[in-house]
Amino acid sequence: MIERRESRLIWDDKWRVRVHTLALPNGRIVERATIEHPGAVVLIPVQVTDNGAEVLILRQYRLALDEELLELPAGTREPGEPWEQCAQRELREETGYAASQLIPLGEVWPAPGLSNERMALFLALGLTPDPLPADEDEEIRVETMPLAELVDMALDGRLDDAKSIIAVLRAARYLESNPQI
């Protein structure tokens, strides 16, 4: 069994980075880093039109990839912030809309080998304009796409952001099972 011998905090901001000294079953001593994260939300903002369900989706620059990524609105929760409050705040900051209804679609561990971050997924319905100022370090363009097209993109690899793939597929299943929406 792996034994944690020491854990030291090396960076403390919105997230924390710790380096752990571990004793492996074979006797070797190694160091591994982990990220402590307060959690995040992922939103699937859907507008139902005569053409079916349409999703507000973002094109956003991501520093770690040094490229623009197609992804759903998402963001980090403040420590202790209620999930639904965080969802409304992020939705308003990133899309300029608020939702009259947030439907939980479960939670996921996006990177358990690296972080304890937990992501809560929400279907956002009843959208009305209600913008908040965007974060200064984000460059976002909002687009509208048919949910059916996003499902196809999730399945064939054109949508490659993991949180967005999971959320799109769960939203599609939910809406398919609840046609009255």
Topology (elements, then pairings):
Layout: E1 3-12, E2 16-23, E3 29-36, E4 40-49, E5 52-62, E6 67-71, E7 74-76, H1 83-95, E8 97-108, E9 119-129, E10 140-146, H2 147-156, H3 162-177
Parallel strand pairs: 4-9
Antiparallel strand pairs: 1-2, 2-3, 4-5, 4-7, 5-6, 5-10, 8-9
Helix pairs in contact: 2-3
Give a short synopsis of this structure:
This protein has 181 residues and is of the alpha+beta class. It has helices spanning 83-95, 147-156, 162-177, and strands at residues 3-12, 16-23, 29-36, 40-49, 52-62, 67-71, 74-76, 97-108, 119-129, 140-146. Strands 4, 5, 6, 7, 8, 9 and 10 form a 7-stranded mixed β-sheet that branches. A 3-stranded antiparallel β-sheet has the order 1-2-3, with no helix packed on it.
Radius of gyration using CA atoms only: 19 Å
Shape estimate: elongated
Distance between the termini: 50 Å
Helix fraction? 10-25%
Q: Number of DSSP helices?
A: 3
Low-pLDDT ranges: none
Helix-strand pattern, N to C?
EEEEEEEHEEEHH
Number of strands: 10
Summing up helix and strand content along with how strands pair, one would put the structural category as alpha+beta
Fraction of residues in β-strands = over 45%
**Mean pLDDT level:** 95
